[in-house]
Design a protein that fits this description.
Elements (H helix, E strand, L loop, with lengths): L1 H27 L7 E3 L2 E3 L2 H4 L1 H15 L4 H15 L2 H6 L2 H9 L3 H26 L2 H11 L2 H11 L1 H29 L1
Antiparallel strand pairs: 1-2
């Protein structure tokens, strides 16, 4: 019975080594945060070492997909909502005021005038805001405010299942390699 134990060692050891290797590889994405020198080699986690480059690439990627004009609709909607919820509109929507204005024929004219004013204001304001908005600088500032710890937490939260899959895959691949070694041992003897 003991002779069969020797055939279990390569798959079990392979699984353990594969798992631990992948756990360490994932850890090395973020650690060490500060560069350290070991025997003349500079070692630093991938994310901390390339954080500035990642930030630049991320901003470029976002800029490729999100343009200033994409904000115009969002800004128009916010301005319209703000104007509709303004004190003037609430005053004019008051049932007593509305009844008086309607009785004297002013409600429709005032409503049309305010609608036109709101539309012109939305167009002017949203155009001015979009033209003066520096989305790239805003993104760069926000990304620069991220610490490596926050980046690691976000990445782990975002890719938790995928990282676990990588760890388990290492164990499975290590086990399979060990199994092949065992089969080769059996065939060789």
């Amino acid at each position: 019975m003991k002779e069969w134990l020797i055939y279990l060692i390569p798959p079990i050891l392979g699984a353990l080594i594969g798992y631990l290797t992948n756990v360490i590889a994932i850890k090395l994405l973020f650690h060490p945060r500060k560069p350290i020198n070991i025997l003349g080699f500079r070692i630093q986690g991938l994310v901390p070492a390339k954080s500035e480059e990642f930030a630049v690439r991320f901003v470029e990627l976002i800029e490729d997909y999100v343009k200033k004009e994409d904000f115009r609709e969002l800004i128009d909607e916010a301005i319209g909502k703000t104007l509709r919820e303004s004190k003037l509109m609430k005053f004019l929507m008051n049932p007593v005021i509305g009844a008086i204005l309607e009785k004297y024929g002013f409600k429709e004219r005032i409503s049309e005038h305010i609608d036109g004013l709101v539309q012109r204001s939305q167009l002017l304001l949203s155009s001015a805001i979009v033209e003066n908005m520096d989305f790239k600088r805003f993104l760069e500032k926000k990304i620069a405010e991220f610490s490596e710890e926050e980046a690691e937490l976000i990445f782990k939260r975002f890719a938790k299942k995928e990282m676990r899959f990588i760890e388990i895959s290492g164990a499975i691949l290590g086990f399979l390699i060990g199994l092949v070694q065992t089969i080769l041992l059996i065939v060789a003897y």
